Prior knowledge:
- The structure holds three protein chains of three kinds.
- Chain A contains eleven helices and ten strands.
- By secondary structure, chain A is α/β, with parallel strands linked by helices.
- Chain A has a six-stranded mixed beta sheet. In chain A, strands 2-1-4-5 form a four-stranded antiparallel beta sheet, with no helix packed on it.
- In chain A, β4 and β5 (67-68) form a beta hairpin.
- In chain A, α3 packs across α4 (112-125) and α3 (97-107) runs parallel beside α5.
- The longest helix of chain A has 16 residues, at 171-186.
- Chain B is mainly α.
- By secondary structure, chain C is of the alpha/beta class.
- In chain C, α4 (103-113) packs across α5, α4 (103-113) packs parallel to α6 and α6 runs parallel beside α7 (177-192).
- Chain C is globular and about 75 Å long.
- The relative contact order of chain C is 0.15.
- The chains are: A alpha/beta, B mainly alpha, C alpha/beta.
- Chain B binds chain C through residues 114-116, 136-137, 139-140, 143-144, 189, 192-205, 207-213, and chain C through 53, 55, 58-59, 79-81, 84, 88-89, 91, 93, 95-97, 99-102, 104-105, 108-118, 121-122, 125, 143, 154, 157-158, 161.
Amino acid sequence: MKLIEIKDLYFRYPFEEKYTLNNINLTIDSGESTAILGPNGSGKTTLIKHLNGILKPTKGDVIIEGKNTKEKSIAELSRTVGIVFQNPDHQLFSNTVFEEISFALINFGFNKEEILKRVRSMLKLFDLEKYETHSPLLLSGGEKKRVAIASILCYDPKIIVLDEPTIGLDYYQRKTLINIIKNLKKEGKTIITVTHDFDFALEVAERGIILKNGEIIRDGSLIDIIYDSDILEKANLIQPTLAKIIIELEKNGIKLDRKVATVEEFIQLVIK
Amino acid sequence: MIRPELLFFVKKKSLIHKLDPRTKLIYAVAMLFLALVSSSLTYLFQLFIISIIPLIFSKLYKELLSILKFISLFAFLVFFFNYIFTFNVDISIAMVLRLLILVFSFLIFSLTTSPDEIVLMLYKLRFPFYLVFSLSLSIRFIPTLMKDAMNIIDAQRSRGLETQKGNLIKRIKNYTPVFIPLLAISINRAINVAEAMESRCFGAVKRPTMFYEIKFSKFDFIFLFLFFIFVFFLIISNFNLHFLNLKI
Amino acid sequence: MKEVIVIKNFSFRYEGTNFFSLKDINLKIFEGDFVILAGPSGCGKTTLIRLLNGLIPHFYKGEYKGEVSVYGLIVKDRKTYEMAKYVGLVFQDPEDQLLSMTVEKEIAFGLENLGYKKDEMVRIVNEIIKLLNIEHIRYKSPFLLSGGEQQKVAIGSVLALKPKILALDEPFSNLDLKSSYNLAELLNYLNKNLKYTIIIAEHRLDLLINYASRIIVMNEGRIILDGPPREILSYNLEEFGIMEPKISKISKLLRKKYNFDICLTLEEFVNNFKKIYEINRN
C-alpha cells in the first residue's frame, strides 16, 4: 500500500535563488525501511521536512495516506509521520523525562490513563526508568537521544523518520539504536532514515535513495547501491569498506556473493 | 537560509562603501544639524538635493526603491498631520524635506557600513575592547541563533505543538517549549565559544591589534572636501534669506 | 625521542561533580606522535584534551591532583594564552569556535589577541591560507561554509599561533564521511610533512587508523590500553565501546579460524586473503 507519494516536488527557500529540491518523485509503501543518503547539503533534511508539512512544496505535491500535505496541519500530519530530529537539544525542555515523553501525547489529546501507560512502556523500552524524574537537559548525549526518540514513538506514528540518528553516538549507543529500529521494523512500522553513514543504513534499511544537489540520482536496493562505485563517486559518498573488499577480491580473481551487508554475514560467507 | 544582513548592510562595491565609517558618521551628523538650523524652503530643498548625491554613488538602487515606497507613505503622514496642526503648507513641506534628508543621510551610513566596520569604528573611538568584542560576537551569532530557533520550532511542531491556539497569555505560554531549549543551547554555545576564545589567547593583551583597520583614505578627504564646499555655498547663498529664522 | 607531554599520577574531578573524570593517569607523548584517544562518551578523553593547554584548571575548575607538563612547562602555573603557543586546540562543533565575519580575520583572531602588528599578521594569515589551500573562501563568512571547510578554518586559526602540538576533540562528529576523510588526510599531512604532534579524541578508528602511530584506549577515566595500532587492534575494542575499523575486525574474526594476520589497509587484507584462499582451496 502506498503510504507516501511525492509527485514532481520542487522546493525553494524564501530569499534563495536555487531550488533545494528538484523534481523529486518517490513512493514509499507501508512497512518499507528506506535510507536517504547523501552528503551534507544535498537536501536530505529539507526533503523529510515535507513529510509532516513543516515545509510545503513550492511546486508539486506530497501525499501522505492519500491526503495532500497542503490541506493538513503539521499537528494532523505528525500523528502519522513522527520525525526525530538530529539534535535532541532542539527539543528537550521539560522538568522531567516523564513529562518530556508525555508532551506529544498531551498535545494529541490522549487521556490520562493512556498517557501513563504509554510513557511507562517507553521508559522501559529505552531503559530510562531510572531517569523518570530527572531533568532531560542534564542527561548524557546518548540518553538525550533516547528520550527524543521515545517522545516520538510514544504516540505510535505509522511512519518514523530519523534524521542523522548516529551523529554523536558512540559504539554502545549506536548498537542500542540499531536494535530499537530493528524491533520497530518487526512491528511493521515504515521507517525512513536520513544518514550519510552507510554502515548504519545497511543494518536497518533495504532500500536506498541517493540525493545530490536536491535530486534523486539513484533509488533502489541498498545492497546494489553500495557496489555502484560510479554513483557513489558522483554523489560524493564514500564506498563502504565491505563493498571495497569484495570488489578488490573480485579483481584478484576471488568471486564472492555480493549480497553481504554486514561483517557477520561476510564471515559466514567466507567460512562456507 | 535566513539572511538578516538584508535588514541593514548591503554588500556592494561602490565609492560610498569604500569610505571610512567615521566619514559617513560625520556626514550624517552634519546633515542632521544642517537640516535643523533653518526651515527655509529653498535652503531645505537644496540640502535635500545634496543628500541625494551620495545615494546615487552607493549603487543601491533596488534597495533604495523598496525603502522609498515605505518612506513616501511616512512622508505623506508627516505632511498630513503637520498641515492639520498648522494649516501651513510651507511648514508641512519643510518637515517632509527634513524627514527625507535625515533618512537619506543615515541610510548612507546604515546601508553601506558592515557590522564589522561599525565595531572597528567603535574600537578606534576608544570604546572598551570587551564592549566592542561582545557587540561583534552578538552580531556574528544572530544567524546561528535564528537557525537554532527555527530547528526548535520545527521539532516541537512535529510533536504537536500549536503556537497559535488560545488567548494571548496562552499563546505566550505556548512558546515555553521553544524558549527553554533555545536558552539551554545558547548557554551551551556561550561556554563553547568562551573555551575557543580562551584557547586562542583571548585576554593576553589589554588592547588587541586589529587585522582589519579603518583608515582615512584619499576618498574620505575628497568626499568631505566636496561636502564642505557644497555646504559652504549652501550657507552663503541662503544667508540673506530667512536663515536662522526658526519658525517650527 | 623527545617527550613533549608528560602527565604524572594525575586525577581530576570537575567542580560540582562527585566523581573523578580522570583517574591515575600516567602518560608520555613524544614529538611527532600521531595519537588517537579512543573510548566511549564519558570516558575522559575530552577532559584529557582540556588539560593540555590549561583550560583545566584555569577555565574548568575542580580538584587537580598530579602534574601535567608540556615542553617542560608546568601547565597549571602558566596562563592559557602562554600554552596556546605550544598546544592548539580544535573542538567538536565548528560553528562555536568561529567568531569572525570573514575567514582571514578568523585566522588572525589569536594573533590580534597577542597584539601582533598588522603586517606580521598578514604574513602569517597568507601562509596559513596557502598551507590549507583555502584562498577561495578567504573573504567568506565562516558561518556560511560547509562543515568540512569550517573545521579547516578552525584548524587554521590555531595553526596561526604556531603551536607544536595540535589536539582535536572529536573534530569529525558534525561532518559527513567524505569531509571527514579529507580532514584526516590534512592532519596526516601536518603530522608527516610539518612534524606536528597530533592528539585526537575520536571513537571511530577507521578514519585515522592508517595515519596513527599510537592508540590510547580510555574507559571510565582511566587509560586501559596504549600502544601501536596493530597491537591495540588485536584486542576486542568493541567491548570498550569503540567502533573498530571494518578491515581489522574482519581479519580478527577470520583469525579465529585461519592463520590470518591483523590487517590495517585494504591492500594488506587482500594479499592476506589471497594467500589463505589458495592454501584452503588446495
